[in-house]
Amino acid sequence: MKLDLLLIIVAVGISLPGSEAGVTEEQMWSAGKLMRDVCLPKYPKVTVEVADGIRNGQIPNNKDSNCYINCVLEMMQAIKKGKFQVEASLKQMDVLLPDSYKPEYRQGINTCKDSTVGLKNAPNCDPAHALLSCLKSNIKVFVFP
């Protein structure tokens, strides 16, 4: 239900007059907040402070944090069953990011395309940690809800 709401909000935001250049940063963060609000309650050991740290690029490597990251990445359609969904990520990037972010994110996504290869998703959501760490290392303007 919340994912449907997110998609509606993003679609409406993109189709508003004057928004032909893509979403604004405000719209991007609003969409991210919805994802965060869905995933945080699923992982009670991940506090708001830990989630804020992840958003700021401090990515802990433990089961709860990794699975929270996995939840958000799944909502973004960036990862599915521990596999990086490169084409879906590129499409979502076009929908969820302002135009000024896109060239660097496109390059980062392509650089990290193999970051989940050989990693098992269960039980610790390791591919999500590997993917987000790779993206953070390869994209100057790091964005994560």
UniProtKB/TrEMBL annotation:
GO cellular component terms listed in the entry, alphabetical order: extracellular region
CDD domains: PBP_GOBP (cd23992)
UniProtKB keywords: Disulfide bond, Secreted, Signal
Superkingdom of origin organism: Eukaryota
MF terms (GO), sorted A to Z: dibutyl phthalate binding; odorant binding
A Pfam family the protein falls into: PBP_GOBP
Segments forming a coiled coil: none
Entry's Gene Ontology BP terms: olfactory behavior; sensory perception of smell
Compartment annotation: Secreted
SMART domains in alphabetical order: PhBP
Segment forming the signal sequence: 1-21
Similarity comment: Belongs to the PBP/GOBP family.
Protein name: GL26840
Organism listed in the record: Drosophila persimilis
